[in-house]
Amino acid sequence: MSKLLNFYTLSIIFVFILFTNSCTKKVVTIPYYSMTDEFKSYCLFQTGSSWDYYNSKADDTVTINITELLEDVWYNNVGELYNYEAVNMIFTSNNLGISVLEVTGGSTLNAVNPMNSLMRIFYDNGEYRLVFDAKYPIGEEQIIGEQEGVYENVEFITTMELHGNTYSDVYHTRITDYYNQGFGDYDFYIAKNFGIIKMRNIVNNDTILTELISSSPIQ
């Protein structure tokens, strides 16, 4: 009788283990991508940072200030699945029409540069441009959609002079209005520890220059 009970007991335990295993969901861990310190030195600034630009359209100096930082973790569900760091730098109202600089971590898949992150600029009218994505090779155009056109890392400038100031390790990037959306073409110059030091927008054969005169960036 005891052998029979032991058999039934073992059978019940075996069935319970099978049932438990079948009901246990497999936990899938997805990667988390944060911004590298190198990228942050180009693109991430703290509340109180300010920049004075000369703008050719206004023919005047325009000051922009960061008033708030919004930090978050976002989820990418297109293609590769991952979570990533995101920070929005909120600006005061200004004549340049810039409302937000958005910086995010990104996938290291197929990246040629460890700065696997990007920066976008948002305007008051709802438009946005990709400013900086270092993972792409220099001189190689990337089609990134109708809203943003074609992106290119044009060159890396070791030293750049602008309005009496010297900047080091500058990335020159370009957005081309590939789909003829009407926003024209943009050139951006992003300097280490200073952010955007120059912007050039050519639209309808008109050129608008925005160049840094002085700044107080806080990192």
Give the structure's gist in a few sentences.
This protein has 219 residues and is mainly beta.
Descriptors for this entry?
single chain; 219 residues; mainly beta; 13-stranded mixed sheet; 2 helices; 13 strands; 50% strand; globular
Topology at a glance:
Elements: H1 2-23, E1 32-33, H2 37-43, E2 50-55, E3 60-76, E4 82-91, E5 98-105, E6 117-123, E7 128-133, E8 142-143, E9 150-162, E10 165-176, E11 185-191, E12 195-203, E13 206-216
Parallel strand pairs: 1-4
Antiparallel strand pairs: 2-3, 2-13, 3-4, 4-5, 5-6, 6-7, 8-9, 9-10, 10-11, 11-12, 12-13
Description:
13% of the residues lie in helices and 50% in strands. The chain has helices spanning 2-23, 37-43; strands at 32-33, 50-55, 60-76, 82-91, 98-105, 117-123, 128-133, 142-143, 150-162, 165-176, 185-191, 195-203, 206-216. Strands 1, 2, 3, 4, 5, 6, 7, 8, 9, 10, 11, 12 and 13 form a 13-stranded mixed β-sheet that branches. Strand 2 and strand 3 form a beta hairpin.
How much β-strand is present in the residues?
over 45%
Enumerate how many helices there are, as a single number: 2
Specify the helix fraction band.
10-25%
Largest sheet: 13 strands, mixed
Measure the end-to-end span: 78 Å
- Count of β-strands: 13
- H/E series: HEHEEEEEEEEEEEE
Average pLDDT reading: 88
